[in-house]
Amino acid sequence: MNSNPKPKTIIDKIWDKHVVQAIDHETSVFYIDRHFIHEVTSPQAFTGLKNRGVKVARPHKTVATADHNIPTQDQHLTIHDELSRLQVNMLTKNCADNGIELYGLNHPYNGIVHVIGPELGITQPGMTIVCGDSHTSTHGAFGTIAFGIGTSEVEMVLASQCLILSKPKTMRINVNGKLGKGLKSKDIILYIISRISASGATGYFVEFAGSAIRDLSMEARMTICNMSIEMGARGGLIAPDQTTYDYMEGREMVPKGEEWDKAMAYWKSLPTDPGALFHRELHFDAADIEPMITYGTNPGMGLGISRTIPSLEEIEPRSHASFLKSLQYMGYAPGEAMLGKPVDYVFLGSCTNGRIEDLRAFAGFIKGRKKAENITAWIVPGSKQVESQAKKEGLDVILREAGFELRQPGCSACLAMNEDKIPEGKYAVSTSNRNFEGRQGPGARTMLASPLTAAAVAVTGRITDPREFL
User: Fold this and answer.
1) Which residues contact 90 (CB under 8 A, 6 or more apart)?
2) Are residues 347 and 335 in the same domain?
3) Of 113, 138, 168, which residue sits at a domain end?
4) Which residue range forms the structural domain that includes residue 14?
5) 4 pLDDT band (50/70/90 cuts)?
6) Are residues 237 and 341 in the same domain?
7) What percent of the chain has pLDDT over 90?
8) How far is residue 335 from each of residues 302, 308, 312, measured CA to CA in Å?
9) Is 431 helix (H, G, I), strand (E, B) or coil?
């Protein structure tokens, strides 16, 4: 009789450890280690608890920040927009009433929820993490099962620290080889989504693996996992390794001393066992990737920057109507080249690309150059700590000398829920994660790209291949 345990994926290991009770062969009560909340999806949940007379079960397991609605200028003043001000004030009150840690506006730890979790060391390998925000998958870069939840589920976690869930299927996406010059992790994930479509991973939890993934920094890995949701996945993760541990060690809320050693023993047990089977496995070669740009209204409508928008003959007949509708919204036509197309706005920031490495890449590119006159640029750090580090390194000076301004942290122009909206009909190259119709403002036209491509656009005023300058 074979006594060797069956090889398990990292997803199976973390999932099985957090099952509190099986309800049936598909559904379980599932424990949540860490719950992040912000001002947009939490008010209704707290109201639901109050109406039922239920208290927050484990307030110390929840961390709150204000990010979606806050302005990125003059944060010392009262929030101008009435709805935004109400939502931020409600978050402050709800956290105070329930004993929840809040990193509110002007707190030194304030920032985008998926930026502050990792930088403070709250996010740790092997955890289960949820937030009422679809891009919670960002935390998967540390080897966690992290995913977004709806408002009713936010209420459920606050009340019980658990969810009722069905286990997703597993997928592994391998990217091997070396990235070429002028490429960032944003190009990797946009390439993958363009190949498998915006629904290609629906129903799966994805592990990203391969030499190209292992070579990435933690901040670059966060970008990959952040956008796993944009191919329909329930979430995405990357196995922890020495890069992970080096990033985490010494951060404020990471275990210290003997507790660190104990944690490390668990973390090192997490990577997928040799021979473990996934429901689906895909392979890509990093050498095939070039700087990416989207041309349509979902993240799957992307292409290498030197290529042309597909012709109608290249699109499946059943998708012709949606394809043409998307191009009509964007003001583009089949077969057109993307290079040289005019741009009005550039946005660097969001939980996808608002970290210090992103600001360094942008500033390094534009140093000694000038912003194009036709470009309005919003350079937005993902947190107060990122803002502080950027100033410490003099990135704000480099930006200012080139005609840019470093704004204050927040979700900013990722989504039209604050003052940073792209005007109707204008084109924006954005380092955020979504290019849906109206995502950055009613009628706004969004093209997703990496920080380097955004920098090239910012100094030329048009779609430009960053490799031309490198």
Assistant:
1) 39, 43, 46
2) yes
3) 168
4) 10-168
5) confident
6) no
7) 98
8) 13, 6, 8
9) coil
Exposure class string for 277-308: b at 16+ Cβ within 10 A, else e: ebeeebebebeebbbbbbbbbbbbbbbbbeee
Number of alpha helices (DSSP H) and beta strands (DSSP E) in the chain: 16, 18
Distance CA(205)–CA(234), nearest Å, equals 5
Residue 383 sits in the same domain as residue 407:
yes
- What burial class does residue 2 get, using C-beta atoms within 10 Å of its C-beta: 0-12 exposed, 13-18 middle, 19+ buried? exposed
pTM: 0.97
Write out pLDDT tens, residues 418-432: 999 999 999 999 999
Same-domain pairing of 44 and 137: yes
Compute the distance between CA of residue 202 and CA of residue 11 in angstroms, rounded to an integer.
Answer: 16
309 CB-near residues (< 8 Å, 6+ apart): 295, 303, 327, 332, 333, 334, 335, 336, 337, 338
CB 230 within 8 A of CB 148: no
What is the reported pLDDT for 470?
87
340 and 224 both lie in a single domain: no
Helices (H), 23-133: 43-52, 82-98, 113-120
- E strand residue ranges, 313-370: 345-348
Determine the pLDDT at residue 232. Answer: 98
Residues 78 and 173 placed together within one structural domain of the fold: no
Q: How far apart are CA 194 and CA 267, in angstroms?
A: 32
Please state the domain count of the chain. 3
Looking at the fold, whether 147 and 207 belong to one and the same domain comes out as no
pLDDT of residue 1: 47
Q: Is residue 252 part of a domain?
A: no
Residues 214, 99: Cα–Cα separation, whole Å: 39
pLDDT tens, residue by residue, 150-171: 999 999 999 999 999 999 999 9
In a domain, 328, yes or no: yes
Please identify which residue in the block is written with the tokens 């990093």.
Answer: 286
Residue pair 406/378 in contact by the 8 Å Cβ criterion: no
Q: What is the pLDDT of residue 5?
A: 85
Q: Is residue 251 part of a domain?
A: no
CATH of the domain at 206: 3.40.1060.10
- Is 283 found in the same domain as 143? no
